[in-house]
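How a chain folds remains the central question behind the approach discussed here. No coordinates are needed to read the tokens, only the vocabulary itself. For completeness, the protein is quoted in full, as a sequence line and a line of structure tokens:
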Amino acid sequence: MEDSGTPAGTTIAVRELFYNTPARRKFLKSEQTELAHIAALVTHYALAHPERHFELHSATQALLIAPAVASTGDRLFQIFGRDTAALMLATAAEMDFARAGLPEPPPWKREQDYTPPDPGFLRISGFVSKPELQKLNRNSIYVFVNHRLVRDRVVLHALTEAYRNIIPPTSFPVVLLFLEMPPQEVDVNVHPAKTEVRFRQSGFVHDFIRDTVRTTLMTARPAASFASALTSAPHASASLLLDVSPMPGPPGDPVFSPRQHPESDADPSAADAAGFTLRAPVAPESPGRLAFSDHGIAVGYEPAAAAAFSTDPANAIDGPEETLNALATLKPLGQLRDSFILAANDEGLWIIDQHVAHERVLFEKILRDREVEQVQRQRLLMPVLVDLLPAQMVSFAAIAHELDLNGFEAEPFGPRTLAIKAAPVGLEGRELERMLEEVLTVPDHEQQTENAETRRRRIAASIACHAAIKVNMPLEPTKIEWLLAELGKTEHPMSCPHGRPIALRYSHKDIQRAFQRI
């Protein structure tokens, strides 16, 4: 590791650390697993200190070459490469802790020369992924508190809430986030490995992270392209460019989910190390690339590529973003198999999933109407009787009030039957029964961790899904125009409440490139 912050350019090299005092063999995993842990640690330090030069060499090759750079954005490009960097959004915010309302000690407990302490500031900076970039686990989330890498439940929950109803609940974003706060606001001595912290005002920190990230997504309104949507969606064989996190959550913690790995014949202990499988080393494509089979990963510094990335406005992290603000200018062309709306504008060709587009429109309308208690409901000519399981009847008792606020009028009709007398407008017949079965069938662990806001959004999402326009449904041109106009007014036109993409764009530049005009 070269410390470029010193005038003399001091270099710290660590070689044969356990040559005279070998580590205890019974605590060691396979060589590949231990190498993965080392790669994870070096990667974390490199992300936290972009001003320093990092190199990681194995016995046969260079694994990581990351010279000092000027900014975190440049380091992001170094570690994760162009494709991931292009799908990240810069975020930054600041708030003083005085707004948190921490009470002062009473006058009789204050010393004579007591002066109120300076509350200091909570600062957030870093990058969060666009909704189209999703991963199978939380290993892609890097959070640093005062330049210390942590795996904190409060922060992870805040990020989950920020992406709620934007990406699927089984997917996770890519996050590189730096929190700065006064030392007295965070206790770093609550875990032997220093990977967990305790915030003095955890609720304030949680809400500020959630609101900052969600505001970034709402402001950016990024548009998903066809190419990125096909390559960035999570699936069994896809993982983050470098899923390295040596700090899995505690067993049984609902905040952490078990990792999912592709099936392979590799050493299981190697896969458990960091979310990716290490196999026999192969020759790297170029200096600074992680050299494992199936992983030609750009983790080093390639000056030419980095310069092109920084100077090209279409690719720069801080440059102009392709957003969904142009939805209002779309001109409908028709439907594809009565399921997808084709539209165009000066930016290119668009395909909109009519079901999830209407689902997003209804979802946000339900939440607005629910907030002011103006939900529209329709009386049924005859009550609809729905048979439920005993556990579902218990769930109904817990959410009956919330259902009433969303337009339902239901009451028990016998020990295991519900009589539905009124329902939200647009929800009827078999869809009404399916919606009730869906909201009443919730796993026990989710019920235990679900708060009022989460329950409100879950019920609203279910109502919207079952009341929305279906696929294989022909639409009149006026209906298509109305749907596109309403979609453009929503806060999150990127995805439906369950996280599926709504609109994909084939840009004018992509079309020109496909026809070899550029």
